[in-house]
From TrEMBL:
Residues 729-778 form the SUEL-type lectin domain. This is beta-galactosidase. Belongs to the glycosyl hydrolase 35 family. The keyword Signal applies. Its EC number is 3.2.1.23. Pfam families: BetaGal_gal-bd, GHD, Glyco_hydro_35. It comes from Hibiscus sabdariffa. Keywords: Glycosidase, Hydrolase, Signal. It is an enzyme of class 3 (hydrolase). CDD domains: Gal_Rha_Lectin_BGal.
Length: 778
């Protein structure tokens, strides 16, 4: 949904020298940092969605891509899992993350919440807030504000090295504040503010006053979220405020059952260039690197893989041409920086759907953005007595009002193809062991109630799972009945007398589901055990504390009667016994009996374990779980996330099959893999894969533009008087990833080749020396 919001942004902007916070102000043109106007390109990289070992590489690649700022959310529930118990260790060490950003000469924009959404479980709020009497999240509510302010104080103390529950980093780092926009202190609050009525505006004012009280100098600036802010954003709510785009979605989050959302490099570049042409001054790519939702951190129905289609993919590899095309865009815009920031802005019509945005500085220099809004036609426009060809829906950038440095619709950078290679098949049945999860009965549970309890308030987010157990008498032997259960949980598995009788699940769009299954009851006491499961907690909307989930009704229908168990006595068990014993760890694994794989009849809810060695080399590692159903996977006691391979997309394939295993999770040999399988997966079908870029390609024609760096070089030598200069020619430039070299040339054609980098062919015109020539120089 395209929309814009009047919100606050609390961001933490740190100076590149690490001495202290920068002085950040603004005017109607841009943010002003230490007295200098800035046009800034920012990218979202969330520290807990990668590992500390990955941070330096991710930040370096972002910088090489032309970014000035790294943006991250702050995940309150990650840092304060229990009231007053703080954790800033490992991937939670936000100060270490910020220092790495500083060390590489970039700014850090920190979105501190309290609510972040971000497809993160419960929107980043700790679930224990739910138990505070009288609390109302995200409103002018004293209990909520007090708890959040206490968390901010703990963050401040940690960053300053004053008090912490984990070892300090080398030097104190005070939080400075950069204020730009949209929800860095309250993400997308404009979408819910009306629901809180008179409690909404005071809360928003409190958030701003709190920031000011921390001596942050946070301004109120409205901003835009979405894909087309160059077209949809009406502009700042004051002529004295800059235009800010806080979330430019490079793809979109993906839920189980959905296909990936692909957004082209050309489309992203067009809308960024248009936003800048219309006096935009700050663009943040959400996400620049999405990463992985490890453990149980993903929100409801969200995939473990997060924004894999971003310029840096889930594993931190370049996704080309997206990364390269945006790098060229940033370089071209920065060639225009002086006229953009201090020039006079004018607009010229060039045709029915064509326009020029021109910036001039007292006839000294200028820059122009030539826009073709026609989505179907290539057009030739006249600008200052010169002709320019503009592909459909594209923008040409002229840093000197003469020379085309870049066109958003002409991709000259290389493409690549990511591939997985099987390192080890875990297909040796003899090496797998299994442990069947105990199906509890009413007598096993000490927590009891004469009603169906709400799921989330009972589990307190300590587990995805809640058992509902009951018992009843039946006077007939081997009688046929129908079990009917309605549920607002995400998954339901039903057992009668310890035997599996059926399951059902909802979806991101379908919030409730119904199970109707034929069952056979014994004479005497019968047991119903229902496992309610969540695949992440909700992360959006007003009054999150009022949301409900779990089993709603239970009925058993016979030939002559219907028994309603909704108000029966029920016993409850929070979590699975294997979770409670932590059988996915070395120590917990020894607490239960493991049997040879397949030594007894299959049961839903089974734990599996095996060992494997880490792949050689440094390539990213993934676990291929396509043969499994639904569950969670741990390696050496660390969860790599939930999986749900049985939930198929409309094309009949799983939404995700490979699951990221960071190298830092692995030992060289003897890695313990434990799988919790809820359904009927086949563990020997699992493989350990390596992920790499296996193929690169490029395509240019005489209508493409030379690399932007060649424009810079020519401009520096003074040869900038014509559109085509010596040395400035379109080029195919292919480069292998570090540590790899070209093994063979698959295809080369100079002429009129057809197709793309996956499907290609020689055209009507072709030089037969193309391939030999390329092979000779490689």
């Amino acid at each position: 949904m395209e929309s814009w919001f009047l919100l606050i942004l609390l961001g933490l902007l740190f100076a590149v020298d690490g001495v202290g916070s920068s002085n950040v102000t603004y005017d109607g043109r841009s943010l002003i940092i230490n007295g200098h106007h800035k046009i800034l390109f920012s990218g979202s990289i969330h520290y807990p969605r990668s590992t500390p070992q990955m941070w330096p590489s991710l930040i370096a690649k972002a910088k090489a891509g032309g970014l000035d700022v790294i943006e991250t959310l702050v995940f309150w529930n990650l840092h304060e899992p229990q009231p007053g118990q703080f954790d800033f260790s490992g991937e939670r060490d936000i100060v270490r993350f910020i220092k790495e950003i500083q060390a590489q000469g970039l700014y850090a924009c920190i979105r501190v919440g309290p609510f972040i959404q971000g497809e993160w479980s419960y929107g980043g709020l700790p679930f224990w807030l739910h138990d505070i009497p009288g609390i109302v999240y995200r409103s002018d509510n004293e209990p909520f504000k007090v708890k959040y302010f206490s968390f901010l104080i703990a963050m401040e103390m940690f960053s300053s090295g004053v008090s912490r529950t984990v070892p300090a980093t080398d030097t104190p780092l005070r939080f400075g504040i950069m204020a730009v926009s949209n929800g860095e202190i309250e993400n997308e609050y404009g979408m819910v503010e009306a629901a809180f009525r008179e409690k909404g505006p005071p809360y928003l004012r409190w958030a701003a006053e709190m920031a000011v009280g921390l001596q942050t100098g946070v301004p109120w600036i409205n901003a835009c979220n979405g894909r087309r802010c160059g077209e949809t954003f009406p502009g700042p709510n004051s002529p004295n405020k800059p235009a800010i785009w806080t979330e430019n979605w490079t793809s979109f989050y993906q839920v189980y059952g959905d296909e990936p959302d692909i957004r082209s490099a050309e489309d992203i570049a067009f809308h960024v260039a248009l936003f800048i042409a219309k006096k935009g001054s700050y663009v943040n790519y959400y996400m620049y690197h999405g990463g992985t939702n490890f453990g149980r951190t993903a929100a409801a129905y969200i995939l473990t893989s997060y924004y894999d289609q971003a310029p840096l993919d889930e594993y931190g590899l370049f996704r080309l041409p997206k990364w390269g095309h945006l790098k060229e865009l940033h370089a071209a815009i920065k060639l225009c920086i002086n006229p953009l920031l201090s020039g006079v802005h004018t607009t010229l019509d060039l045709g029915r759907s064509q326009v020029a945005f021109v910036y001039r500085r007292e006839s000294v220099d200028g820059a122009a953005f030539l826009v073709n809004n026609d989505t179907t036609k290539t057009v030739v426009v006249t600008f200052q007595d010169s002709l320019y060809e503009l592909p459909p829906k594209s923008i040409s950038i002229l840093p000197d009002c003469k020379t085309e440095a870049f066109n958003t619709g002409k991709v000259s950078t290389q493409y690549n193809t990511r591939a997985a290679e099987t390192w080890q098949k875990l297909d040796s049945i003899e090496k797998w062991e299994e442990h069947k999860e105990t199906i509890p009965t009413f007598e096993d549970n000490s927590l009891r109630a004469n009603m169906l309890l709400e799921h989330m308030n009972t589990t307190k987010d300590n587990s995805d799972y809640l058992w509902y157990c009951s018992r009843f008498q039946n006077e007939l032997s081997d009688a046929a009945f129908v079990l009917n259960v309605t549920s607002s949980a995400h998954v339901l598995h039903a057992f009668v007398n310890g035997e599996f009788v059926g399951s059902t699940h909802g979806s991101f769009k379908t919030k409730t589901s119904t199970l109707e299954s034929k069952i056979t009851l014994s004479k005497g006491t019968n047991y119903i055990s229902l496992l309610s499961g969540m695949v992440g907690l909700p992360d959006s909307g007003a009054y999150l504390e009022r949301r409900v989930a779990g089993i709603n009704t239970v009925r058993v229908q016979g030939e002559h009667e219907i028994k309603d168990f909704t108000s029966y006595s029920w016993g409850y068990q929070v979590g699975l016994l294997g979770e409670i014993l932590q059988v996915y760890t070395d120590s917990g694994s020894s607490k239960v009996k493991w049997n040879t794989y397949g030594s007894s009849n299959h049961q839903r809810l089974t734990w599996y374990r095996t060992m494997f060695d880490a792949p050689a080399g440094k390539e990213p590692v993934a676990l291929n779980l396509e043969s499994m159903g639904k569950g969670e996977a741990w390696i050496n006691g660390r969860s790599i996330g939930r999986y749900w391979a049985s939930f198929l997309t409309p094309k009949g394939v799983p939404s995700q099959t490979r699951y990221n295993v960071p190298r830092s999770f692995l030992k060289h040999t003897g890695n313990l893999l434990v799988i919790l399988e809820e359904e009927s997966g086949y563990p020997p079908g699992i493989s350990v894969d390596t992920i790499s870029i296996r193929k690169v390609c490029g395509h240019v024609s005489d209508s493409h533009l030379p690399p932007v760096i060649s424009w810079q070089q020519q401009n520096e030598t003074g040869h900038n008087n014509s559109k085509k200069q010596p040395g400035r020619r379109p080029k195919v430039h292919l480069r292998c990833p570090p540590g790899r070299s070209i093994s063979r040339i698959l295809f080369a054609s100079y002429g009129t080749p057809t197709g793309d980098c996956e499907n290609y062919a020689i055209g009507n015109c072709h030089s037969f020396t193309s391939l030999p020539t390329i092979e000779e120089v490689t």
